[in-house]
Amino acid sequence: MTLMHKPGIDQPPMTLTGERELRIATYNLHGAVGIDGKFAPERIGEVLAEIDADIFALQEVPLGGANSPDLLAVLQYMTNLNAVAGPTLETPARRYGNAVLTRYPVRAVHMLDLSFKSLEPRGALDADIDCNGEVWRVVATHLGLASSERRVQVEQVLQRFDTPELPVILLGDLNEWFVYGRTLRRLVTHFHRASALRTFPTRYPLFALDRIWVHPGERLMRVDVHRTRLSCVASDHYPLIAHIRA
């Protein structure tokens, strides 16, 4: 493997208008199994290199164990970024869940258990990241499949933001299939509504399952879907990228 990212902390890139921006991406990796059925961690690493984001929120990440690969370790090696694991399933045989990769220092990490009844374990990884002297609170999550589950989970997440002292980015795979679903309507009460771009499935994108929410909203410049030859096969989700005024 070769490193795909220069070591060290880079300055945020400049826009055409001379503003500095942060690139924040969310990406459901589907365990690094592409739509061709191949387990290909290096292909995921190449997609991350294409995006070259300052912060990645990743979902469906194998995190090691006796019977499971450590995909996050592979991606950290390939990108040379700081890595934070947020397992939602943790047994001797298998660790699995959310993760964050970032070129900036991580100042604090908190885990939020969002598991609902006997359904698949869910959680949120809440990290304070120092982006060139400004600390951003980045909350990476993967909500449940049932609407009743998501309603409870989003309330648990929002309880953490009653009095936001830091700028906040909430992002991940929200699994909300409905354009005006209750989950999205509830999030609008706390966060700026970003564009809903279709990211799933990559063969023929129909649903905006992957979302990025920003507070304060005026910092959000735009969001894009990263569609390339690699990203259309590497996972069943496309990455979503937010450009944020630094």
TrEMBL record:
It holds the Pfam family Exo_endo_phos. The keyword Nuclease applies. InterPro entries: Endo/exonu/phosph_ase_sf (IPR036691), Endo/exonuclease/phosphatase (IPR005135), GPI-anchor_lipid_remodeler (IPR051916). Residues 25-237 form the Endonuclease/exonuclease/phosphatase domain. One of its GO terms (molecular function) is endonuclease activity. Keywords: Endonuclease, Hydrolase, Nuclease. This is Endonuclease/Exonuclease/phosphatase family protein.
